[in-house]
Specification:
The chain has 435 residues and is of the alpha+beta class. The chain is 57% helix and 16% strand.
């Protein structure tokens, strides 16, 4: 029988292969209620202490961890805790397997809610970004009008609803927090299996979580939307002044640098949030597609309602982020042009300085040559006179008559030639240094 050697296994093979078998949705038996809370800014140690407190509320609470998810099961409730990059998801679930119905007036006030650990919910760590209550009730073939009428009595005029999934279950909500701070979802499920119920609940959890996480970029976008026009005006002013050369290039470069630093600070503070919002909007769109909604005739459908209401926020975040990046690029391009102009001007100044130095060197060379010729003339003049006096003196001692003028005339060319030869030799051995 063929068998692979475990020593040759890739260390990540088991983990990578488990990805396709990971089930993020836990099966749910109906009727059931669920409470979902999404929190941010929670410390891992603080969350761990809260989980231990949750497990201590009842005597027979079991805990286990699967794929990074903490699962707790009490006698009358279940809970799952999923920690993500910037949030934690807390889901509490209570099932009524005996099939007791809900009160006709308000299913969100039924006795089954008393099974959930209310004390633990009051001590949840972190900051609550969103919270939702779900009522899931089995439903056979029922007229849509009776569903809508029942839901309208609960949610009022803000009612939104759709058929969802292949089973065409009914989903209703108003996406408005109630007096307890929870957004309520009412589901009449035609699905046949607990896995289908859990998958539907999981998709709704994703939609609610991604909806709020995507909107986290909106406050920052609105603040920038009020500030960006002023930055744009400042950029236009600097651009016009640089083009007209109304201010010194060095001062304009300093002003442009200060403006660029402001824009880059906004980019560094908000780029991650805007990128995350874009990703969450895309995930939200995928989850809405997977929900497979179909409209009722009498009320607004869920997907168009969310898409239409979130479209403005999505466009604002995208446009502000694009505007910020575009302004940063334009400031950088203008700065490069200004630095190029400054470099060209400095190059021209350097060329002018070199030309001045060359002229100065040429003048110095001419002066040096004139001085050397003058030195030769002076040397020749004094040397010939000295030589003539010396020869005349020697001739007097020898009683010889010496013509001093003749001596000067003969010695002058020779002495001048000797002086010039010595200067040329010195110049070749010690060339003048240029500045």
């Amino acid at each position: 029988m063929m068998r692979l050697d475990k020593r040759n296994m890739h260390p990540l093979r088991q983990r990578l292969n488990s990805e396709i078998h990971w089930l993020p949705y836990e099966p749910v038996d109906l009727p059931a209620v669920a409470a979902f809370i999404l929190v941010t800014d929670v410390q891992e140690e603080q969350e761990h202490r809260w989980i231990q407190h949750l497990a201590s509320l009842e005597k027979h609470v079991t805990m286990h961890t699967t794929d990074g998810v903490e699962w707790l099961r009490g006698e009358r409730w279940r809970a799952s805790i999923q920690r993500h990059v910037e949030t934690s998801r807390y889901l509490f679930l209570a099932e009524n397997k005996e099939g007791d119905g809900y009160p006709c007036d308000d299913p969100f006030a039924g006795s089954i809610w008393n099974r959930l650990p209310a004390e633990a919910m009051d001590t949840i760590p972190g900051q609550v970004l969103t919270a939702a209550k779900f009522v899931l009730h089995p439903s056979a073939e029922t007229e849509a009008s009776s569903w809508v009428s029942f839901a309208r009595n609960i949610f009022g005029r803000q009612l939104v609803g759709s058929y969802v999934g292949r089973s065409e279950s009914a989903l209703f909500s108003d996406f408005m927090p109630d007096d307890d701070g929870f957004i309520r979802f009412l589901i009449f499920s035609r699905a046949r299996t607990p896995e289908q119920h859990g998958r539907l609940l999981g998709r709704l959890l994703d939609i609610e979580a991604y909806r709020m996480l995507a909107l986290l970029g909106l406050p920052a976008a609105n603040r920038l939307l009020a500030e960006l026009p002023q930055l744009e005006i400042e950029f236009q002013r600097l651009s016009n002044e640089i083009s007209a050369q109304k201010t010194a290039d060095e001062q304009a470069l300093q002003d442009l640098l200060a403006l660029g630093l402001k824009v880059e600070r906004h980019l560094s503070e908000n780029a991650r949030r805007f990128t995350a919002s874009k990703a969450y909007f895309e995930l939200l769109e995928r989850r809405l597609e997977a929900l497979e909604t179909k409209p009722f005739e009498a009320i607004p459908p869920v997907k168009p309602f969310l898409t239409r209401r979130l479209e403005s926020a999505r466009d604002t975040i995208h446009d502000v982020g694009h505007w910020l990046e575009q302004l940063s690029g334009r400031i950088g391009a203008l700065g490069e042009l200004l630095r190029t102009r400054v470099s060209v001007r400095q190059e021209e100044q350097n060329q002018q300085l070199l030309s001045a130095l060359n002229r100065r060197f040429s003048l110095q060379l001419r002066l040096q040559q004139a001085a050397e010729l003058l030195s030769v003339a002076i040397f020749t003049y004094y040397s010939t006179h000295l030589l003539a006096d010396l020869i005349a003196f020697l001739g007097g001692l020898a009683h010889m008559e010496i013509n001093e003028l003749t001596v000067r005339g003969i010695s002058a060319p020779l002495l001048a030639a000797g002086a010039i030869w010595w200067l040329l030799r010195r110049r070749r051995s010690h060339p003048p240094a240029s500045d």
